[in-house]
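[READ THE FOLD]
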Amino acid sequence: MLGAVVRPSPPARHWSPLQAPHPDSLWPTCSSCRRMEGSEELESSLLTQPWASVCLGESTFLAKVCFRDTGYILLISDLSSVWYESANAKAVGQRSKELNKRLTVQVSSFLHHLYELMRPLLAGQLDATTSFSCHHTAGGLSLHVKSELSGLPFHWEFHCCPAPVEMVSRHLVKPLIQMSLALQSQVQKLTSLLLQKDAEIEDYRESGATLSRDRLRTEPFQEETFQQHFMVKSLPQICGAGEGQAFTSTLQQLYMAVTHQEARQAQKRQLSEDAEDPAPAAETTEHPHPPPPSQEDETASSSEGITPTSSPAQKPRLSVAKTKPKKAKGLFS
């Protein structure tokens, strides 16, 4: 049987197809956290990866993926539905044996090769030696990859199921709303800057300054007129550009900036919750059991003819301690 020679598996780290690995570290480390199928770090690493437009046959999708040597998570959408798959190293190893019976490869190296195949696809740079195809299954989406590994045929299948609403909201809806708010704030600041520039130009004119080149002359900026022109002329062109243009490089950068902020805030909330959790436990475990009475207290109680009972309320230590001087005086007087 032929076997592919692979290098030893690296430490547990993650890599993104849209981020080239550093020459000194093939898989950059990540300290993010997630709450999905026992792999919190993997989904939070996926959160900060941008969406990319990919073409599979005649269909256009938005996709994002994050790999580690312990597994991967893929999120893909046609803007009508959203699917995902999260697979750990054990599941990847079992499926690789079923699809590639002639290959003997360590799981971490198998995942790294799969990452190398997915990276050009998400970057829009298709490799002639690799083909991708997809088809809809009952309630899901199957993505097929065909390539080569060490001169042998290489096959892989992503078995995607519908993504839960919480996942769609976290990776798509919330970031898009935050991006819209960020862009709106940017437009407002630019509008304010334009109005200031117009006031500055008008001051120059009133001072007698003239343009040396008349073609540079502009009309004062009118915000309402600009908005109307944008809605009538520019917006139809943007909406008709096609679904494949959903995330340009500039929007990808904005998406990553927004999701990094969300990841930091989530980490702060988690640290705050962890810091508050031990407080109630400390209050309840400070004195779980009252200390047993000392031998001196028991002797003093028996000298006065006090019979101890099983009820804690009938033998408080404070009351015994207050009567001790009287008992001692009665014994030695």
In short: The longest helix spans residues 165-206. DSSP finds nine helices and eight strands in the chain. The mean pLDDT is 77. The radius of gyration is 34 Å.
